[in-house]
Amino acid sequence: MSEAPQPTTAAEKQSSARVLPALILAMLSFSVVQTAVVPILPSLAKELSVSGSSITWLMTANLLSAAVLTPLLGRFGDLRGRKPMLLISLTGLVAGSALAVSTHSFTWLVVARVLQGAGGGVLPLAISIVRDELPKQKVTGGVAAISASMGVGSGLGLVATGLLLEHWSYKSIFWMGLAFGLLAVALVAFRVPSDPVTDKEGGADPLGAITLAGWLSALLVAVSQGNTWGWTSTKTLGLFAVAAVVALIWGVIEVKVKHPLVDMKMMSRPAVAFTNLAGLLIGFGMYGSFMVISNFAQTPEKLTHYGFTATVLHAGVMLLPSALGSMVAAPLGALLIARRGPRLPLVLGGVLGAVAMAYLALRHSHEGDIYTASAIFGLGIGLAFSAMPAYINGAVPVEQSGIANGMNAVLRTVGGAIGTAVMAAILTGDTMKLPIPVLLPTLDAYKHAFWVAAAVCAGAGAVPFLIRTIKPTTTVAVGNDMANLGSGPVLAKTDA
Question: What CA–CA distance (Å, rounded) separates 367 from 178?
Fold first, then answer.
C-alpha cells in the first residue's frame, strides 16, 4: 500500500526555496560554460592563430576534465560532504573562467578549459544534496529540475554566445562564465547547508582513481581526435587499445579493493547499468544534434542551396526552443515519475528526440522546421534527463548517490564526445566542390546525420524496457498548490 504524502511544513518549504535555486544556478553555470564555445571554434582559431584541428582541444580538454573529475568529486562528496565538494567544483569553474579572461595564449586557454571542467561535479553533488536536504515529496521534482537544467543551459549558452559576439569580443563569453560562477559560489555558500550524509566507513581508492582517469583520457582523446588523426591511424587505434586495457585493469581493481571508488556490484545492477547505457545514447544525441543543427543553420544558402546563412546569434536563437522545451520537461517529468515511475519519461524522451531528428531529415527547408524540431528535441532531452537520476536514486543507497550519478554524468559526456565525432565524420565524409577553398557537406550528409541521431535517440527510448519497473513509494495528490506540482516522492530502493 502506498502512503499519502505528509503536508509540507513551513520549514521544509523554506529549505526548498533556499537550496534548490542555488543548485539550479550552479548546474546552469556549468552547462552554459561547457557549450558556449562550440559555435565560435572557427573564429577562435583565426583569433588565436591556430589550426582548425588544434582548436578542437578547447572542447576535448573540457570534456576530458569533466569526465575524469565528475566521478571523483561525486565520490569525495559521499565521503567528506557534498557542499565542500560542490564549492570546489564551482571554484574550478570560476578559476578557469578568470584565467580565460586574462590570457591571449591558446595553451593557457586550454588549461582554463580544463579547470572549467571541474564544474562537471555539480550534477551528481547537487542531486545528492537534493536527496539529503529537501522533504521527501519534493525530491523528485528537485532532481528533475536540476537534471533538466543541463539541457536548458546548453541551449541558453548557444544563444548567449551569439548575442555577446554581436557586440563584444570572444572574451565576453568567458566573462559571462565568470559572472555565473561567482554568483553560483555565493548562493551555494550561503544557502546550502552542510550536509550530514557522509560515507564514514568508506575510504580513498587512489589506484582506482588513477586507472579511471587513465582509460577515460585515452578513450576521449581518441574519439575527439579521430577525425583529425584518422580512425585507422596508429595513434587513434593505440589509444583505443590503451583505453580497453586500462579499463579492464580498473575493473579488476574495483572488484578487489576494500573501499572502491566505484562499487562494481552497484554499477552492474540493471537499473544502474541500463540507465547508464541510456545516458550514453542521450549524450550522443544531444551534443551531436546541437552541432549538426548549428552548422546546418550557418551554411551559406547561395553556395549550397540549403541552410539559412545564419549568424552565430541567429543559429543560437534557432536552438532556443530546445532550452524552453527542457524547462517544460522538468515539472512534467517529475509528475510522470511520481505517478508512473521513471520508465515513461525516459521512453518519451528517446521517442521525442527521434521524432525531432527524423522530422529534420525529412523537412529542413524553412526556419520553422528548425524551431519545431528544436522544441520537440529539447522536451525529449529534458524528460530523459529528469528520469535517469530517478532510476539511479531508486536503486542505490544514499551514501552511493554521488558516485552513481557521477558515473551516469560521465557516460553522458562520453556519449557526447562520441556523438560529436561521429557527426563530424559523417559531414566531412561527403562534401561538395565549391569555387572557394572551403569544404562544405552535401545536403545528403546532413540528412544522414539527422537519421543517425534519430536512430540513437530511438535506441535510448528502448533501453528502459530492459529495466524492471521502479514504483514510487507514495502517491501524489495534485491540487491547487502549484508549488507541489510534480514534486514526487523518493523512489523506493530496489534490487533492479
Answer: 33
- Smallest Cα–Cα separation from 142: which of 158, 126, 155, 157? 126
Rounded CA-CA distance 1/280 in Å is: 35
Q: Which three cell numbers stand for residue 156?
A: 541558453
Q: How far apart are CA 34 and CA 225, in angstroms?
A: 18
- Which grid coordinates are listed for 168? 563584444
Query: Is the full-model pTM beyond 0.90?
Result: no
How does pLDDT run across 326-344, given as a tens digit for each residue?
999 989 999 999 888 999 9
Pairing of strands 431-432, 440-441: antiparallel
d(CA 28, CA 366): 30
Q: What does the pLDDT look like over 156-203, one tens digit per residue? A: 888 888 888 888 888 999 999 999 999 999 999 999 988 765 555 656
Burial label for 86, CB within 10 Å (0-12, 13-18, 19+), is buried
| Cell numbers describing residue 154 | 546548453
Which is nearest to 387 in space by CA: 305, 467, 284? 467
Phi, psi of 298 (to 5 degrees): -85, -5
The neighbour count for residue 229, using CB atoms within 10 Å, is 17
